[in-house]
Amino acid sequence: xxxxxxxxxxxxxxxxxxxxxxxxxxxxxxxxxxxxxxxxxxxxxxxxxxxxxxxxxxxxxxxxxxxxxxxxx
Length: 73
Description:
There is one protein chain. The chain is 81% helix and 0% strand. The chain has one domain (2-72). The protein is mostly helical. Helix 1 (2-32) runs antiparallel to helix 2. It contains 2 helices and no strands. It is elongated and about 50 Å long. The protein has helices spanning 2-32, 45-72.
């Protein structure tokens, strides 16, 4: 049981890091390429869709992993 809690904490750490990296890369990419956002980046629908999609995928992966650990143990 303690091992599963440790593994879940580690997964939360890595998923949060992944979320931050993906959002930073999306912000830089959409902010520097002409026509993708520019100064009005935070008002574009594409940016917020990328943020929401990344968050949903990270949360979904966490619960899939949690289910997998529960099934395994």
